[in-house]
Specification:
By secondary structure, this protein is mainly alpha-helical. The chain has a single domain, classed as Preprotein translocase SecY subunit, CATH 1.10.3370.10. It is built from 19 helices and five strands. It has a three-stranded antiparallel β-sheet, sandwiched between helices. Strands 2-3 form a two-stranded antiparallel sheet. The chain starts with a helix and ends in a 9-residue tail after the last helix. This is Protein translocase subunit SecY. Keywords: Cell membrane, Membrane, Protein transport, Translocation, Transmembrane, Transmembrane helix, Transport. Belongs to the SecY/SEC61-alpha family. It is a multi-pass membrane protein.
Length: about 425
């Protein structure tokens, strides 16, 4: 491990990328403490600690920016929501987007530009909803004598903050190491860990009772967290190898093919994206309902969409499973895989090339994806259930989601660094 860390700093390009990523993290952390003008953040900070689990989730993902009501208060979630919408519309719903999806890198750039515009539009809506909703929820002390101009200023500042975060994420992807948007969320969660540890240590579950029992309870929490981490790593790394045989071909004076290989199908090919998607969409109805917080139906949404409520848990699980299937089959198209194998003279032993191969790959991928989806859903809601049974603070009941994202992003980043080291003939984390 120490030799690998030493090798990283021997590669100039890799060292530059890591330092650039760390520099962006510093900028991000500074931004979480820059207040929105015209807002009494102390009032919000005091009342937010008793807020819903969904607000706690958003506050964790934003690294405390929501509790500080800083320029990054609504975080990167509008970008995630826009990405979901664009990907859904690219599945032959809007012909132009579907055409761009098939144009390779050029089409990706066009789609990315549309996603940016959609992000700004969604950010403005969410910023208005956030400012008006919180001002109604916490009273006029948050924004004294608020006018439309005050809400407009807050919305513009919050939208600018989200746009800046989106730009920072793209800069990390281009000049840093790993996926920039995922790393921004990763940085926010990691920054919130000390607060969660403090909340757990001060909870009635730990401090009540005798010293010996308090130690036992603490050890039990640590064991559960360690088991969750082991399970997440195991599922994230697990793959199913589909054997592929390529027939020999003679092209000119050279012979191609004839080798055996395999297709690595991951149990959880979607990674942590479904959890992020589900978390993002789950808070959308609550944000919209905040416009009409005095109405009965809006109060019902705010009460029942929390992640510790039965309806909220069911919706959360369904969305995680649905997005796992959606994202997996978008990234790994069985029909396209079968066509590519057939064009290159490849086949799965015992399976006919073409449509039969596509059907076989679809069946295998569906079973693997269902296993991965159920595991993601289970890990996401397990800490919520255990936290409710143990009486832990509501702000730490979203630990499963946080752990999934942190470990998933860490593994993906580690693999990126691993590839860079192997390419330059250095030993990485995995290779011995």
């Amino acid at each position: 491990m120490f030799k690998t860390m030493k090798n990283i700093w021997h590669v100039k390009d890799l060292r530059t990328r890591i330092l650039f990523t760390l520099f962006v993290f510093i900028i991000y952390r500074i931004g979480t403490f820059v207040p929105v003008p015209g807002v009494n953040k102390e009032v919000f900070k005091q009342t937010n600690t008793a807020g819903s689990d969904l607000l706690g989730l958003l506050n964790t993902f934003s690294g405390g920016a929501l509790q500080n009501f800083s320029i990054f208060a609504i975080g990167i979630f509008p970008y995630i929501t826009a990405s979901i919408i664009i990907q859904l519309l690219s599945m032959d719903v809007i012909p132009k987007l579907a055409e761009w999806a098939k144009q390779g890198e050029h089409g990706k750039r066009k789609t990315a530009q549309v996603t940016r515009y959609a992000t700004v539009g969604l950010a403005i809506i969410q910023a208005f909803a956030t400012s008006i909703g919180f001002n109604r929820l916490y009273g006029t002390e948050m924004v004294p004598n608020a006018t439309f101009g005050d809400y407009m200023l807050i919305a513009i500042v919050l939208t600018a903050g989200t746009s800046f975060l989106m730009w920072l994420g793209e800069q990390i992807t281009e000049k840093g190491i790993g996926n920039g948007i995922s790393l921004i969320i990763f940085a926010g969660i990691v920054a919130s860990i000390p607060t969660h540890i403090q909340n757990i240590a001060m909870s009635d579950f730990i401090v009540s009772g005798q010293t010996f029992m308090n130690i036992v309870k603490t050890i039990a929490i640590i064991i559960v967290l360690v088991l969750i981490v082991i399970g997440v790593i195991y599922i994230q790394q697990a793959i199913r190898k589909i054997p592929v045989q390529y027939a020999k071909r003679v092209v000119g004076n050279k012979m191609y093919g004839g080798q055996n290989t395999h297709i690595p199908l991951k149990i959880n090919a979607a990674g942590v994206i479904p959890v992020i998607f589900a978390s993002s969409l789950l808070q959308f109805p609550v944000v919209i309902a905040s416009f009409w917080s005095t109405h009965g139906w809006a109060q019902w949404i705010s009460s029942n969409m929390n992640i510790d409520r039965p309806l909220g848990i069911v919706l959360y699980v369904v969305m995680i499973i649905g997005f796992t299937f959606f994202y997996t089959f978008v990234q790994m198209n069985p029909q396209q895989m079968a066509d590519n194998m057939k064009k290159n003279g490849g086949y799965i032993p015992g399976i006919r090339p073409g449509k039969t191969t596509a059907t076989y790959l679809t069946r295998v991928l569906s079973r693997l994806t269902m296993t991965g989806a159920l595991f993601l859903a289970f890990i996401s809601v397990l800490p919520v259930i255990l936290g409710a049974l143990a009486g832990l603070p509501r702000t730490v009941q979203i630990g499963g989601t946080s752990i999934l994202i942190v470990i998933g992003v860490a593994l993906d980043t580690m693999k990126t660094i691993e590839g860079q080291l192997i390419k330059r003939h250095y030993k990485g984390f995995i290779n011995k």
